[in-house]
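Appendix B. One record, verbatim.
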Amino acid sequence: TQRGLNSLKDCPTRLDILWDALYQICTCLYDLYENDAVASVDQEFNQRSKFRLARGEGTMTRKDSVLMRQYMDEYQGKTIDIQAHIKSSESSPTSNKLLRIYFYYDSSLHKIIIGSCGRHLDNYTTQKIK
């Protein structure tokens, strides 16, 4: 999405980590989504990749409509939910190893649509830390 492209301007993640994650999305993750025999895409991806796939945000975040607005994006005139994300094991917000790539998988278009790269979007936990 345009938002996804714009997020790259402020993406603090080291380029080698970002490119590795994008490669994993284009190959491993895409293949898992396209394979009807895969029962749990997140579990399979987490076994195959050094990155982790989170299907969505926690219960408390989902209950907060203000927080949830940032997980909505638009692609070709359609509102999409980009809660699903790939993440690195790094959690320090100041680290250049921190990575979050938020996306939506559109099964009708057979596309993984990226809505944000780099920084952690606010959720219930990060909101309490600020």
